[in-house]
Design brief:
By secondary structure, the chain is of the alpha/beta class. The protein has nine helices and eleven strands. It is 37% helix and 23% strand. It binds nicotinamide-adenine-dinucleotide (NAD).
Length: 262
């Protein structure tokens, strides 16, 4: 039986992509769709059988799992309602803060939850590659991450850039928060050994580009990923939804879903 999915934010770029990608898949079916009151799709049909609502409780009651690509407020309120219902979750909203992390941790104690800043297969492979590169090259090779996204993106640096930078820190065996440098401005001095820089570019309709640089003496390695369609994130999130429904409570990553050893 296909997993019955509640899609949050059907008016948004990712919510729409999830609905489109679900059509024709055998492992999932869209059972409900919930957006904030006043959002364009509320009251409108988003699939031949589903009308979007702003009633989160009703939306979750109709489904076995929900997929959340919304905002910090959307993620917080959905996880709070899901907590009471023990609804499995797939969460892709980025820029999560302590408030969201806490309620997600509470939800993960009673239901299985997949949280990923990036649901694409390629980016999850890149996370493993940069960790391995950082481990082999060490902190004498200066590691920097540059990310580019469309002008409407709210959070910076991107969640994916942070995941890549954290993977580099893990490869170095360093504490990311002690070595990170998010964008430089002014008289910042020479680059300390082991620093990991993350820089942000915003413009146009770029879906998402990330490059990890490793600068050695007289040579340089670049590991890049470029997304050219949101379909990759939507398909990954649907795969995660089908995977997570029968898992025990806990917090999982896309590496778990894909079966990659971390
Ligand atoms: P968007 O602005 O196009 O859509 C956001 C949607 O959320 C809208 O439909 C909006 O009405 C809805 N929303 C806002 N508040 C809500 C609430 N309280 N309850 C329910 N719905 C609510 O944004 P987007 O480009 O679709 O991105 C959404 C999020 O997903 C961002 O955080 C983005 O960074 C992230 N994202 C993650 C991945 C990934 O692979 N993890 C990929 C792409 C985007």
């Amino acid at each position: 039986m296909p997993a019955r999915v509640c899609v949050l934010g059907p008016s948004g770029r990712m919510g729409r992509a999830v609905i489109d990608a679900a059509a024709g898949r055998a492992d999932v079916t869209i059972a409900s769709a919930v957006d904030r009151a006043g959002a364009p799709t509320v009251g409108a049909q988003v699939t031949p059988t589903v009308t979007a609502t702003s009633d989160l409780g009703a939306g979750l009651a109709a489904a076995e799992v929900y997929i959340d690509f919304t905002t910090l407020e959307g993620t917080l309120s959905a996880a709070q309602v899901a907590l009471a219902r023990r609804t499995p979750a797939v969460i892709g909203t980025t820029g999560l803060g302590p408030e969201q992390e806490q309620v997600i941790a509470e939800l993960a104690r009673v239901a299985p939850v997949v949280v990923a800043a990036n649901f694409s297969l390629g980016v999850n492979l890149v996370l493993g590659l940069v960790k391995q590169a950082a481990h082999i090259l060490g902190p004498d090779w200066d590691a920097e991450v540059v990310e580019t996204h469309h002008r409407a993106k709210r959070d910076a640096p991107s969640g994916t850039a942070l995941a890549i930078a954290r993977a580099i820190a893990a490869g170095h065996g360093s504490d990311y928060d002690a070595v990170k440098r998010h964008t430089r401005d002014g008289d910042v001095g020479a680059r300390p050994r082991g620093e990991i820089g993350v820089s942000t570019v915003r413009g146009g309709d770029v879906i998402g580009e990330h490059t990890a640089y490793f600068f050695g003496a007289a040579e340089r390695i670049e590991i890049s990923h470029r997304a050219t369609s949101r379909v990759i994130f939507a398909a990954g999130a649907l795969r995660a939804a089908a995977w997570v429904v029968d898992k025990p409570p806990g917090r999982y990553t896309m590496l778990d879903v894909l079966g990659f050893a971390s």
